[in-house]
Amino acid sequence: MARDQINAFLGVGTSYEGKLSFQGAVRIDGDFRGEISSEGTLVVGKDARLEGIFHVGQLILNGTVHGQVTASKKAVLNKQSHFHGILHAPACVVEEGAELCGKVNFDEEGGNMSEALEGQDSRDPAREGIISIANT
To answer: Pfam families in the record, alphabetically (predicted)?
Structure first.
């Protein structure tokens, strides 16, 4: 992604807590805690740490995310990334070296992962389309 396509930037050493919505693309290299809602692209830099609930069109992860992510188009976890939580996307690219620990749901519908898991035993093998991955 070319730098001129980024609409907003939260740099290294900055922190933000709250709700963020945007159009286009946003890059976060600092700390973020809260909610993000966008049909655009969220780029998480290698030094970034995010925690919360995120609904985006595309996730490009180079840093650390703890929480629930719904990417309506695609999620890309690059080699130095760390993801802990629930990931819901119709397509996911995980580079060798990326850490992915949690639940993944590949669903074309783009539904709500929290609702999909509600009332289900996490050990139930009948949880169709959901896999658990732990990198040790």
So the answer is: Bactofilin
